[in-house]
């Protein structure tokens, strides 16, 4: 689960991390009030969407307007907010369709001496969380990692112990920080790592992290996302979820216990198991087609779930044919065949349906489909299924 | 021979009184696995599928001599269940549960690796040595006793591969589902080591997917240490970056963990890579004859 910058900063503030005063606003008037409340003289109006690259991104409806802008009066804050709010921000991470901005964050300005990068992620190879810092602040870290990996410094830490002071000192030495900034960094970095563990984060990024003219460290931006598997123990995060930022079909699928990712092709897929679902997309592509989605109905899907899955698939206007690929393990092919017919009746199909069944009770399952009189194209194996659905989609 | 489990393995089920626990205990019993009991705190003294239920793993081990466990407890309690099994002296721990918080696995992993026990999973279909012992949720009947060692990060895709192998007359020595999470107890490398040392295993099939670098690390290991024929398949060539593809661990993040990178690493290690998921069995055959 992702949250907005202003929400992440609230969490950091509560943890004792230095962030600038700021106020979230939903209307231009609120943005002007926020400016007055913060007292200027310089504030920054920042579009709040769940994607990076906002500073360089542009508003579709006002191509001159960027997603982040410095303002010097309440009036200017209002005007900028007016151009951003309710409009579409297109950044390198949103794709060309962009994202609607529903909120802006008005934040006090600060005197920047130096910009750095800081991130905490799970290092899967080391099986431990790792704090990464870089002298290249404000730049995309992927770019730094690819082009100048020597400018990224890392410190792994044990979640139960947290980051230790000697690790902070070493990182500071590598970054060329000294004096009172080291004390500031100690507090800042330790607090970030503590929040990462306590809140079960999957990513925390402060880019840029700023060293002010008087040597303090401040989080100028903040990006935070959480391990979905751990949300059950963080009721306090529930209210931070912004469903308007998520793909409606993906939200709907999640509510039905299905795992769904929308793609841009025209062949809908319904599969059991994540690995097989990915492979089904791959084999469609291999035979010249384009998958419209990833959809894993899981190991024990019932009729309601399969019906809902079909509704979601057919709700995508791009879908010109559907491939059902089931390897019955624990799930019996008879169960899925019956669920399929039920869904077929309830949802009503207007595109060709190719079905490949294999595994437990496959003969009985195929018989149920064959005798149903429903217009289904059956396939014998994976390759056959892929070829047939690609042909059916045209 | 086989790896990890065989006909003498004595298995308990943690979470045996739950719906999934009982259902799959029954499935394992029917397959011929030596199931000796189960554990559910507070349900000690009951019987499930004719097996004694205990309150703790320690008691179950003392009374039954169990040396392996199959874990079905809810995700919130899985870390505790794994460590309970470890502390009770269980040597083969198979965690089926999906949805375990990754932070829990950071310390579980460290504890397990510091011991002589093996953890398979979590979020995996389990381990099976055909015709001897099945610990997990896979459909037993598709497996055939044979010569191929199989390891995979996926469930149903593994069944697909087993199916293809069995249809080609290639049976399996042992099949291991590693699990689809970012941190799992057993790696491809651990299993390459075991399969290489296993006399009966003549070829190895590895099924990977996008996310992380486990396949790249395995490729480097194979190049140096594995002399048996190896085939592989990587799922997720069409997966978009930044999206979790069902498995918590199947995500391309920061441009890393793509299928293309993995395939390149495997090919560089002289591993026979199946282009299509329909070609996994045939790829093993090609690896064995080249």
Shape of chain B: globular
Biggest contact? A-B, 57 and 62 residues
Radius of gyration of chain A: 25 Å
Distance between the termini of chain B: 25 Å
> Count of DSSP E strands of chain B?
14
What does this structure look like?
The complex is a heterodimer of chains A (394) and B (290). Chain A is α+β, with helices and mostly antiparallel strands. Chain A has helices spanning 5-14, 28-38, 74-84, 141-147, 165-175, 180-198, 248-255, 274-286, 303-315, 333-347, 362-371, 382-393, and strands at 22-25, 43-48, 58-59, 62-66, 68-71, 88-90, 99-100, 103-108, 112-123, 128-134, 152-156, 201-212, 217-219, 223-226, 259-262, 267-271, 293-296, 321-328, 353-359, 377-378. In chain A, strands 9, 10, 11, 12, 13 and 14 form a six-stranded antiparallel β-sheet that branches. In chain A, helix 2 runs antiparallel to helix 3 (74-84), helix 5 (165-175) crosses helix 6 and helix 9 packs across helix 10. The longest helix of chain A has 19 residues, at 180-198. In chain A, 47% of the residues are buried. By secondary structure, chain B is α/β, with parallel strands linked by helices. Chain B has nine helices and 14 strands. Classes of the chains: A alpha+beta (394), B alpha/beta (290).
In a few lines, what is going on in this structure?
Chain A is built from twelve helices and 20 strands. With 394 residues, chain A is α+β, with helices and mostly antiparallel strands.
What keywords describe this structure?
heterodimer, A: 394 residues, six-stranded antiparallel β-sheet, 27% strand, B: 290 residues, alpha/beta, seven-stranded mixed β-sheet, 33% helix
Topology:
The complex is a heterodimer of chains A (394) and B (290).
Chain A: H1 5-14, E1 22-25, H2 28-38, E2 43-48, E3 58-59, E4 62-66, E5 68-71, H3 74-84, E6 88-90, E7 99-100, E8 103-108, E9 112-123, E10 128-134, H4 141-147, E11 152-156, H5 165-175, H6 180-198, E12 201-212, E13 217-219, E14 223-226, H7 248-255, E15 259-262, E16 267-271, H8 274-286, E17 293-296, H9 303-315, E18 321-328, H10 333-347, E19 353-359, H11 362-371, E20 377-378, H12 382-393
Parallel strand pairs in A: 16-18, 18-19, 19-20
Antiparallel strand pairs in A: 1-8, 2-5, 2-8, 3-4, 3-6, 6-7, 9-10, 9-12, 10-11, 12-13, 12-14, 15-17
Helix pairs in contact in A: 2-3, 5-6, 9-10, 10-11
Chain B: E1 10-14, H1 19-31, E2 34-39, E3 47-48, E4 51-54, H2 57-64, E5 68-71, H3 78-87, E6 92-95, H4 102-113, E7 118-120, E8 126-129, E9 133-136, E10 145-152, H5 156-167, E11 172-177, H6 188-197, E12 203-209, H7 214-225, E13 230-235, H8 259-268, E14 272-273, H9 280-289
Parallel strand pairs in B: 1-2, 1-5, 2-4, 5-6, 6-7, 10-11, 10-12, 12-13, 13-14
Antiparallel strand pairs in B: 3-4, 8-9, 8-11
Helix pairs in contact in B: 3-4, 5-9, 6-7, 7-8
């Amino acid at each position: 689960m992702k949250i907005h910058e202003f929400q992440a900063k609230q969490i950091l503030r509560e943890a004792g991390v230095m962030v600038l005063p700021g106020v979230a606003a939903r209307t231009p008037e609120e943005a002007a009030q926020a400016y007055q409340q913060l007292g200027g003289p310089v504030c920054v109006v920042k579009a709040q969407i769940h994607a990076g690259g906002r500073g360089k991104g542009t508003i579709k409806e006002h191509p001159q307007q960027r997603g982040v802008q410095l303002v010097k009066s309440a009036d200017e804050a209002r005007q900028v907010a007016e151009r951003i709010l309710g409009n579409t921000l297109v950044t390198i991470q949103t794709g060309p369709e962009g994202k609607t901005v529903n909120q802006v964050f008005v934040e006090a300005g600060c005197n920047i001496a130096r910009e750095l990068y800081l991130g905490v992620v799970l290092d899967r190879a080391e099986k431990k969380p790792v704090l990464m810092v870089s002298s290249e602040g404000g730049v995309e870290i992927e770019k730094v990692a690819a082009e100048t990996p020597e400018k990224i410094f890392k410190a792994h830490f044990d979640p139960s112990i947290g980051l230790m002071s000697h690790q902070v000192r070493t990182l500071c030495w590598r970054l060329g920080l000294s004096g009172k900034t080291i004390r500031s960094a100690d507090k800042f970095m330790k607090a970030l790592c503590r929040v990462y563990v306590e809140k079960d984060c999957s990513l925390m990024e402060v880019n840029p992290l700023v060293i002010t003219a008087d040597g303090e460290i401040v989080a100028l931006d903040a990006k935070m996302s959480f391990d979905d598997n751990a949300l059950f123990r963080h009721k306090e995060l529930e209210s931070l979820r912004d469903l308007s930022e998520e793909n409606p079909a993906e939200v709907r699928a999640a509510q039905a216990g299905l795992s769904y990712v929308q793609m841009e092709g025209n062949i809908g897929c319904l599969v059991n198991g994540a690995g097989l679902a990915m492979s089904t997309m791959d084999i469609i592509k291999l035979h010249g087609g384009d998958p419209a989605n990833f959809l894993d109905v899981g190991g024990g899907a019932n009729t309601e779930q399969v019906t809902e899955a079909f509704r979601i698939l057919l709700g995508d206007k791009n879908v010109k044919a559907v491939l059902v690929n089931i390897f019955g393990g624990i799930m019996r092919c008879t169960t899925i065949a019956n669920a399929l017919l039920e869904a077929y009746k309830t949802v009503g199909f207007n595109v060709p349906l190719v079905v490949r069944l294999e595994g437990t009770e496959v003969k009985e399952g195929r018989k149920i489909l064959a005798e149903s009189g429903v217009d289904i194209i059956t396939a014998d194996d994976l390759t056959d299924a892929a070829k047939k659905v690609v042909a059916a989609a045209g | 021979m086989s790896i990890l489990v065989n006909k003498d393995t004595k298995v308990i089920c943690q979470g045996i009184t739950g719906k999934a626990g009982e259902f799959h205990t029954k499935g394992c019993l029917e397959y011929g696995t030596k199931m000796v009991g189960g554990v559910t705190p507070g349900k000690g003294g009951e019987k499930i599928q004719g097996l004694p239920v205990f309150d703790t793993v320690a008691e179950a081990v003392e009374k039954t001599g169990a040396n392996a466990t199959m874990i079905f407890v809810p995700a919130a309690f899985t870390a505790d269940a794994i460590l309970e099994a470890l502390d009770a002296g269980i040597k083969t721990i198979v965690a089926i549960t999906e949805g375990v918080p990754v932070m829990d696995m950071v310390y579980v992993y460290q504890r397990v690796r510091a011991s002589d026990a093996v953890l398979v999973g979590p979020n995996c279909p389990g381990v099976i040595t055909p015709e001897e012992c099945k610990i997990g949720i896979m459909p037993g009947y598709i497996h055939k006793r044979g010569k191929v060692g199989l390891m995979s990060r996926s469930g149903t895709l593994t069944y697909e591969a087993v199916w293809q192998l069995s249809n080609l007359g290639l049976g399996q020595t042992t099949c291991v589902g590693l699990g689809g999470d970012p941190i799992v107890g057993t790696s491809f490398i651990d299993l390459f080591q075991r399969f290489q040392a296993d006399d009966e295993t003549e070829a190895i099939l590895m099924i990977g997917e996008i996310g992380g670098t486990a396949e790249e690390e395995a490729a480097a290991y194979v190049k140096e240490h594995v002399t048996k024929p190896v085939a592989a398949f990587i799922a997720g060539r069409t997966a978009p970056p930044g999206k979790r593809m069902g498995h918590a661990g199947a995500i391309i993040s920061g441009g890393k963990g793509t299928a293309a990178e993995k395939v390149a690493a495997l090919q560089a290690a002289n591993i026979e890579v199946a282009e299509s998921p329909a070609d996994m069995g045939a790829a093993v055959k090609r690896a064995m004859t080249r």
